[in-house]
Amino acid sequence: LTDPNTLMNSQVTVDLEEESITADYAQLVMGTSVELKNLLGTQGLTTEDEESSSFGAMTLICQADDVTVSIRTAVFHDEQGNLITEDAYLGKTIDVKGIVDYFNGSYQVKVFTPKNITVINE
After folding, report:
1. 55 pLDDT exceeds 90?
2. Where would I find the H helices in the chain?
3. Residue with the larger pLDDT of the pair 93 and 52
4. Phi, psi angle pair for 86, to nearest 5°
5. What rounded mean pLDDT belongs to the chain?
6. DSSP string, 68-102
7. What is the pTM of this model?
8. What pLDDT shows up at residue 41?
9. Could you tell me the CA-to-CA distances from 31 to 21, 100, 122 in Å, in that order?
10. Which neighbouring-strand residues pair with 15?
């Protein structure tokens, strides 16, 4: 369980034998799993280019207090095989489990399955 502010804004200093290194917390936990709670889905985009390998993947912009967190998903389908779009999460409070990733100059949390996004409040 990780606090969104810690993930997106904190830095950590690591003391080595002859020097100290300061890095973004998110950089140090890249590729590891995190769980974030009580994110409000405020904006979203579903990739609509049918030629793209990302067709149907989503980017959700979420807020937790004054912290913005970007959630990137794989392509999600419901039990009937229908594409799940950002409308399933916008305006709702969600809990997310995913892997810390870096894309286009920003840290994000990558989610690979719809069961790792839980709608808490609609």
Report:
1. no
2. 4-9, 25-28
3. 93
4. -60, -20
5. 93
6. EEEEEEEE-B-TTSPBP-GGGTTTSEEEEEEEEEE
7. 0.89
8. 96
9. 20, 5, 30
10. 20
Rounded to whole angstroms, the Cα distance separating 57 from 99 reads 15
For the stretch 16-52, pLDDT in tens is 999 999 999 999 999 999 999 999 999 998 888 788 8
The confidence score (pLDDT) of residue 51 equals: 82
CA 55 to chain centre: 18
Tokens of residue 15, six digits: 């003391």
pLDDT of residue 115: 96
Inter-residue contact 8 to 71 (CB < 8 Å): no
- What phi-psi label fits residue 96: left (phi over 0), alpha (psi between -120 and 50 degrees) or beta? beta
With beta carbons less than 8 A apart as the criterion, state whether 100 and 30 touch.
yes
List Cα–Cα distances, 56 to 27, 51, 77, in angstroms.
27, 11, 9
Q: Is residue 63 within 8 Å of 71, Cβ to Cβ?
A: no
63 contacts: CB under 8 Å, gap ≥ 6:
39, 40, 42, 69
Q: Report the distance separating Cα 68 and Cα 114, nearest Å.
A: 21
